[in-house]
Write a structure and sequence with these properties.
Largest sheet: 4 strands, parallel
Number of strands: 6
CATH architecture of the largest domain: 3-Layer(aba) Sandwich
Bound molecules: zinc ion
Helix content: 40-55%
Strand order of the largest sheet: 1-6-5-2
CATH topology of the largest domain: Rossmann fold
Structural class: alpha/beta
Distance between the termini: 96 Å
Radius of gyration: 27 Å
Length: 270
């Protein structure tokens, strides 16, 4: 009797091992099939998502096809490109800083005008919990500027900082999101530990250029972190008077007099 139980136990253990082995094999096979049909799997999953959360255009709120992202084709066409990347002569953006501070290269993707579609895109970029939108446009800007080779010598990106409190409530800094997107196509690092925002300033509107600049200078501070690059690019979401950029450039040059500074912005006021 005792012997019989022992044999049954061994057989049971043997069968159990085979069963476990087959189970593992099945699991591996299932993953292999899923991996092979990853695109099909994702396609169905996206279709399902689309049903629950329709893909709406940020601008016109119309439903978009699954191939469109954030902005529909029609609204995309309404955004006014600067084409600064193809300029052989100095652009309006270069001229904005003439006599104020020396900047190597400047680039902005779109012109900014109030009451135009670009305003809503910028708003979404800033307040819409849409860091992925920043990554998306950043990567796109990276592709645009890398075709011309103007930014080939830029070694790192410094996004215009926002106050930590503001960043906490927004969940991200829109300029950092743009810089991260740029970084993915330009393959250079994003440095968020060099310049810090000191004061949670009130709006700049209603102040004249000098007051704005004075105000801007006090807003930023350098950290103890040492910058080990010769050429950096400041990344901003929108440039209006250029006071913020000017202040950041002056501040960086106060510690690194020979630093070459370029500029990449998503938009520039027309
Ligand atoms: Zn649209």
């Amino acid at each position: 009797m005792i012997k019989f139980i022992k044999i049954t136990g061994e057989i049971y253990f043997f069968l159990f091992t085979i069963k476990e082995f087959l189970n593992t094999l099945m699991l591996i096979l299932t993953y292999a099939i899923m991996f092979q049909n990853k695109t099909a799997f994702r396609y169905y999953l996206e279709g399902f998502q689309h049903l629950i959360f329709p893909n709406l255009c940020l601008q016109c709120q119309q439903e978009m096809s699954r191939h469109e992202k954030y902005i529909c084709m029609f609204c995309w066409d309404k955004l006014q490109r600067t084409y600064f990347e193809s300029y052989l002569e100095p652009s309006a953006m270069d001229k904005l800083f003439w006599g104020r501070c020396q900047i190597q290269e400047t680039f902005a993707l779109y012109f900014f005008e109030k009451e135009k579609p670009i305003q809503e895109v910028l708003h979404a970029l800033k307040y819409g919990f849409k860091a992925p939108l920043g990554h998306y446009f950043g990567a796109y800007m990276g592709k645009v500027i890398s075709t011309k080779g103007k930014y080939d010598r830029v070694e790192a990106l410094i996004p215009v900082p926002i106050h930590p409190q503001k960043e906490f409530f927004r969940g991200y800094n829109q300029s950092t999101a743009l810089a991260e997107g740029l970084s993915s196509t330009l393959n250079i690092p994003v440095l968020t530990n060099i310049v810090k925002k000191k004061t949670n300033n009130a709006s700049q509107t209603g102040k004249n250029r000098f007051l704005r600049w004075d105000n801007a200078m006090e807003q930023f501070g350098l950290t103890k972190q040492v910058l080990n690059y010769q050429h950096i690019a400041i990344v901003d979401d929108v440039i209006t008077t250029g006071a913020t950029i000017e202040a950041m450039v002056q501040l960086l040059r106060s510690k690194y007099p020979n630093l070459q500074i370029s500029l990449i912005s998503f938009a520039i006021a027309k």
